[in-house]
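Provenance and format

Records in this collection were gathered into a single text stream. Each protein contributes a sequence line and a token line. The two records reproduced below are adjacent in the stream.
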Amino acid sequence: MHVRAKLSIIALFCLLTLQSCKKCDTVDPRATEFINLRIVGENGANLVNPTVGRYHPDSIKVISSESMVTYFKKRVDPTIGEVQYQLLPDFNDTGASSVLLYLNSGDTDTLTLNYTFHQEKCGNYYEFSRFRYNGKDVTPNRPENVINLVKK
């Protein structure tokens, strides 16, 4: 009887603990979204094209002002027939990161991103709050989450 009482108490404790916990395997944790970039002219036309564009897709690079690694990848979207870039900057405690966008040997721009760190039970993520391109605020297009970087 003594063993049965101990097992009952342990089972009750486990049941209460499991019911009070959020089940992370059944919840979609928020994730830090990539930033999608399009380099466009004032008329909205994409300037990145291997044959007729102002910039060749392979010439565009990102140089980080931070010491960490910045994720930057060319993305060709066949559904819309254009080149975009995915960016995930270095995150730090200041809540802001800047990258130099190297377009070609004579053209470099600055992109500054502000973000907030969120710590949740099932995972952590960063949420972007502000984007500045060469010192001017830019806003992502929704729902695609694409930032148009307008070149003059």
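Adjacent record:
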Amino acid sequence: MWEIDQLNQAQLREKFNLDQRWFDTPGFPAGAPDADGTRRWPADQVWAWLASRDPHAAGGVALRYWARGAAIYQHAQPISGGIVQDWTVHGVVLRVLWPTVAASATGRVAAAAAQLTPHARQLIRVRHDAGRHGPGLSAHDETGHLLDGDDNPLWPELALVLGGRAPFWPYELRDPDAMRRWRPGHPPIQITAADGSVNPDSLLRLASILPATDTAHVIALNLAQWAQFGASSNAAFSLGLSTEDARHTAWLDVAATPVPVAEPPELDDVIGRDGWLNIAARTDPLSHEAISQARRSSGHDQWLPYTSAEYIDPRTELGAAWAARQRPCAPYAGFQIVYDHLAEHEQGAITEHLTDPVTDTPAVRLASGRVLAAVPHRLPVESPLAELTLAQPIWIRLADGTVHLAPRRDAPGINWGYAGSGTSTLALLITRLLDDITAPAGDTINGGDHGLQKFLQTDWPAGTTVPRADLDAARTGRT
């Protein structure tokens, strides 16, 4: 299926935007009739002819029609969010973009790549996915906008233009310096993997300034190790997907492989929680960044004292009772959880930093009057649960009269009024709190009492308060 296309006159006018007069121009490739007598031209020869006459027009033709095996490598150039590699084919720039950011952010990276010099009529972006022909590709025009059509590029087409194989850089191994040094024919480069989700460098800097005996040192170092192990494992997996399929290996050269990384040790929960509590209490920028990175880590987020946040209206009865307990304070690293949940327009709207003396959770008062508060994973209290209020947010009141946000994590969330994950997670939380008020927030949607799940699936009006006796009754099936 990778033979050179033999196009008739109508197809050439459509695919190459050729004028009728050009078919009679001296030097235009000679076509030949097919079995049906229709005159056809080899697409690559017509493209080479067009490149000699109008390089700008040739640069806009779909990749599958370009001349094959005539590419000359030029250089690699880092840009914000990616690395660009340029080849020339008969003097026409072929630009390949390797993003180093999430797929959702590649639009702006393509726009930046399109502005580079020398000018490229189109650029080929390596996507984050792969298909049956190899790594996914997409074409963008000279402004960076995505081109949609029937001639979307495929990896073998890129490989054929480059001489038979195209270099493959897994997402986690797109190191700017290594890609600048690379040349066609070089053996694979071993690279320390990085996937952008967690930055081990800042964590190692933090660990280096902490005593080796501190749990904060241990936890920062451990997260850095897990981040490096995860990136290396992801790179190896990406390579495996591309190199274990013979349909892919025929068309790609592995440009880089990950430096092997040993799996880090598992830490005790007590060390994990104490370490992140200590880091959350610090005020330096490295600790702020560490908290934000731990929240994005599927392993260490369980040890943070809080990961989610709720908006509170202090004018409501429960909001006012909760707000009366808050105390002004100077910001500390734990506030990073709150900052990460602020809407963009609210980043400059903080009028006061607050902390809850009972739960040690941070909150910020906004210019709107609302408060955004971190939600604890567990309550360090002794008084048992007295009632549950179903509202936004969900509240619990203890037997001693104090009011608290219902403990929860960033995910899964808690809710009521339907059969789903939010209701199941709330049922699990209430099941735990009825037995032990210091129990942690739900980290799964399973395990809650069936009677409580059924009770909470009822679409109770917002503001409904359920006393403990009714929760106990629902749990035992007496409602």
